Amino acid sequence: MKLLCAATFCSLLAAAQTAPREKIDVSKLGPQVGERVPDFSLNDQNGKTWTLSSIMGPKGAMLVFVRSADW
């Protein structure tokens, strides 16, 4: 079983390395600095609901999204 998985992985890796990858301009992904985001409603890790208006302060708000390794 391990040998089969290793062979499959190697063939997938070889295919991925030979296929040309399109460059992605990450500076154009998502909202840009200073751009207003649409209203949202999201739950935090404790189940509390947050909206854009609930986090907005007198100078605005900063949203930071971090993806953990165990998602």
What do these coordinates show?
This protein is of the alpha+beta class and 71 residues long. The chain has a domain at 23-71. The protein has two helices and two strands. It has a two-stranded antiparallel sheet with strand order 1-2. A hairpin with a 5-residue loop joins strand 1 (41-43) and strand 2 (49-51). The relative contact order is 0.08.
Gross morphology is elongated
Fraction of residues in helix: 25-40%
State the total count of DSSP E strands.
2
- Strands in their spatial order, largest beta sheet: 1-2
Q: Uncertain runs with pLDDT below 50, 5 residues or more? A: none
User: Radius of gyration from the CA trace?
Assistant: 20 Å
Name the helix and strand elements from N-terminus to C-terminus, one letter apiece. Answer: HEEH
Number of helices: 2
Instruction: Give a short account of the largest sheet.
Output: 2 strands, antiparallel
Residue-averaged pLDDT, rounded?
A: 77
Helix/strand-derived category reads alpha+beta
What amount of the residues lies in strands?
A: 5-15%
Query: What is the CA–CA distance across the termini?
Result: 27 Å
Supply database-style keywords.
single chain, 71 residues, alpha+beta, two-stranded antiparallel sheet
Quick take:
This protein is 30% helix and 8% strand. It is α+β, with helices and mostly antiparallel strands and 71 residues long.
Topology, element by element:
Blueprint: H1 2-18, E1 41-43, E2 49-51, H2 52-55
Antiparallel strand pairs: 1-2
